[in-house]
Amino acid sequence: MDKVIEVDYEQPACTTRHAWARVPEEPSQQERAALKDKIRRLLKEKNAVLVSHYYVHPDLQDLAEETGGIVSDSLEMARFGRDHAAQTLVVSGVRFMGETAKILSPEKTILMPDLDANCSLDLGCPVDDFAAFCDQHPDRTVVVYANTSAAVKARSDWLVTSSCALEIVSALKDKGHKILWAPDKHLGGYIQRETGADMLMWQGSCIVHDEFKAFELEALIQQHPGAKVLVHPESPAEVVALADAVGSTSAILNAARTMDAKEFIVATDNGMMHKLRQLNPGKTFIEAPTAGNSATCKSCAHCPWMAMNSLAGVARVLETGLNEIHVDPELIPRARQPIDRMLAFTAAHKAGQDAGALVPNIGAA
Ligand code: SF4
């Protein structure tokens, strides 16, 4: 059963605390088994598939794979949901992932365990302010991260995820584009340093990755001199500078598999530890520090919104059809364009084709 907690904090606007207060209680072993059985049955009955992100509870990751769904990063979740034959997608993740699924598959029913599962990047980039920012810089190509609302996507030229942002921005730079980037300032800063592109930044951040601490990470590295450091680029620049490998969740998984080390220090949401340990049984994974001298009330390496997803929530929405994601039908064609551009670019890149040919020269768009 979900916790019911009265939230009366000094900062009532702190959505992070509200999210933590809504995190469901862990079911007992018996409840867990019963919920999994129920979900297996309902997925079949409702012609539905479970699509989970790497940051959600291990039960939801394992069940997605076991039932023919997927556990992945947001790019693969989007692609998988679009291409799967199921009529209903249950998206276990945060709101923008459900919205992206709806934009790509408007004819499908998209359900989410908790519609309030959000993202600080999405919340920190309201469309009216963002549109005004874009209007002030009409000479710039607007590139937004996947972690944004459908309305912000509809105001953009290109969508990127952390798996493909470097390649797409690099291709845009080569074709003469100046970029307006939103919303994550750390990911944007990393891409700017790597590509040398002219990028004007929105100042958003992820409350999870923003908390990783370079000072404490250096101390941890000294304690584990043989460990390789894997960092998600939503982390601050000082943390990224200490990395042996920087990349998306998929890139982190790949680095852990291929790098010659037995120990890894990992700076991303600790939901990733499940898949890292599952795929690399002989290796040790240590969470990068978020606490220490400069810890804040948000210091933990787990997203409170991702934590709102639960077996009980999945079973409930499959049973009732509640928590359906709706996107304004007028927005869908405009929001779909930047997503389709990204998917076409990444498909060409993966196939070894000249993905840069899909990027127009500036002035020729
Ligand atoms: S981990 Fe960060 S980027 Fe991911 S959903 Fe949570 S707040 Fe957003």
Descriptive overview:
The protein is α/β, with parallel strands linked by helices. It contains 16 helices and 12 strands. The strands form 3 sheets. A 4-stranded parallel β-sheet has the order 2-1-3-4, sandwiched between helices. Helix 2 runs parallel beside helix 15 and helix 4 (74-83) packs parallel to helix 5. The longest helix is centred in the C-terminal third of the chain and has 19 residues, at 332-350. The chain is globular, with a radius of gyration of 20 Å. The model is unreliable at 1-12 (pLDDT under 50). Bound molecules: iron/sulfur cluster. The site of iron/sulfur cluster (SF4) has 13 residues, from helix 6.
Please summarize what this structure is.
With 365 residues, the chain is α/β, with parallel strands linked by helices. The chain is built from 16 helices and twelve strands. A four-stranded parallel sheet has the order 2-1-3-4, with helices on both faces.
